[in-house]
Design goal:
The chain has 305 residues and is α/β, with parallel strands linked by helices. The chain is built from twelve helices and nine strands. The longest helix is centred in the middle third of the chain and has 21 residues.
Length: 305
């Protein structure tokens, strides 16, 4: 089992399935809900949402409040690519200032050039995962909507070089990983690409099933743990206890009006966890994901959508 899947298994194993669990040790921050590619397996381009950048003052407040509440990791992931936020480096720096132990980002890598990566590393970024879903330029263009293959590979190699230097010098950015969504069109090329670079990256995860955001689809045969140990912050400031879904339908709070430590176990969150524990998911987005029940789905907070 690779580094990424080990972390997923670790997170699930330490979950407290109770109505009011401790504040999660990891938060997910979506800095922007826009992407500069249009991957064929990803539903985000079809959402056609207004582009929203996470407000810097709100980002700082959420990061410092989350650390005070017990969080020690930040993942910069969402319905967009964090590198498109013009002040992404400042948001990462907030995490370093607050004292976070581990910060990571997932990106398509188009904007992850050496100078940008060095600045992010200086500001406290520890790990980067490149989403590269083809093994050659022609297939890459067909899958991603643009031919950026060589640019992304060059940026990946720059990241590996920086990480190797940081490992020698005991600095921040020490892990570089790749994930690839495997489709019939890209499978052979991805396998060949994996063979070429697997020995020089910290992990190479193959994804055979994805959700509507193009992210890894977890195994929900037993229990989903997200409601109980994970909090995602959308670029508009909504608190959403799910990594696989960025939809306001599952929001438990608007952090423009409520502090994150209060939101985690507010009435909305506790009620949703109680329903989950009792198997009552009808009319919720959790019911759509876990039970394929799409009847009369309503937001947890009326009128938030």
């Amino acid at each position: 089992m690779g580094f990424l899947k080990k972390r997923m298994a670790r997170d699930k194993a330490k979950t407290n399935f109770v109505e009011a669990p401790p504040f999660p040790d990891k938060i997910i921050i979506e800095t922007i809900n826009a992407c500069n590619l249009k991957c064929v397996f990803c539903g985000v381009p079809e959402l056609k949402e207004k582009v929203v950048k996470l407000d810097l003052d709100l980002a700082r407040q959420i990061i410092f409040d989350s650390y005070a509440a017990g969080a020690r990791e930040i993942g910069f992931i969402g319905n967009g690519d964090s590198f498109l936020h013009p002040d992404f480096d400042k948001i990462v720096a907030f995490g370093k200032e607050a004292g976070f132990d581990y910060m990571y980002v997932t990106t398509n890598g188009v904007l992850a050039d050496r100078a940008t990566l060095e600045k992010l590393a200086e500001n406290g970024l520890h790990s980067i995962r490149f989403s590269i879903n083809a093994g050659d330029a022609e297939t890459y263009a067909a899958i991603h909507g643009r031919d950026c293959f060589q640019l992304v590979v060059n940026n990946l190699m720059a990241a590996i070089d920086i990480a190797n230097q940081h490992k020698r010098e005991g600095k921040n950015l020490t892990k570089v990983m790749v994930s690839s969504v495997v489709t019939p069109q890209s499978e052979l090329g991805i396998m060949d690409f994996q063979k070429k670079i697997a020995s020089i990256v910290d992990d190479f995860m193959l994804i055979t099933e994805v959700n509507e955001q193009g992210a890894y689809r977890m195994d929900y045969k037993n229990e989903c743990n997200f409601l109980f140990n994970l909090l995602k912050i959308s670029s508009s400031g909504l608190a959403i206890p799910c990594c696989g879904c960025g939809h306001a339908m599952l929001a438990i709070a608007d952090l423009n009006n409520e502090r994150v430590h209060d939101a985690w176990n507010n009435d909305v969150a506790r009620n949703m966890r109680r329903r989950f524990l009792n198997g009552d998911l009808s009319g919720t987005l959790c019911g759509v994901c876990l039970k394929h029940d799409e009847d009369n789905v309503q937001p947890l907070i009326p009128g938030i959508c």
